[in-house]
Amino acid sequence: MPDADSINITGLLHRWAQGDANALTELAPLVYQELQRIARQHLRAERAGHTLQSTALVNEAFLRLLAHQPGQLQNRGHFVAVASRLMRQILVDYARTRRARKRDGGLRLDLSALAGTADMSDAQLVALDEALESLMRLDERQARVVDMKFFGGLSTAEIAAVLEVSSATVERDWTTARIWLHRQMRES
Question: What is the mean pLDDT of the chain?
Fold first, then answer.
């Protein structure tokens, strides 16, 4: 059963979708802490000395959310998943820009990075994003599971709720996607 905060957030998202600009003002403080947590999770997987801070990442994600149609956001879980994906895309864009300036090439990604234990270089982050885009074309749900679990730090239960599938399905998708990504990285 959804808690009061989730119901309130869902209501605010619906008001925002209907054009109520004040709803976004009310929504921001309710989700800010969770977005900070997600931003910190994303930045933990980044290289040491990354210049973006969690606050800047949250602010940039909010700016990108404003550019999207709010009608696409159905509930709290969906909002968090979209915000997490935007944060990942911001980091990938940042890495691509930085890599383009350096013109560095190595696009190998060690699968240990998928366990969240290794710092990822800009090249590895770009490689992972490209592999996820390939996976998205093959199996969108598996790619979304990886995105939400690895980048968003969502639990299996939270992902299951967002995707409206069972926890067992999320675990199967996570396992299959990791195997596929491992093969993809080994071949590149």
Answer: 77
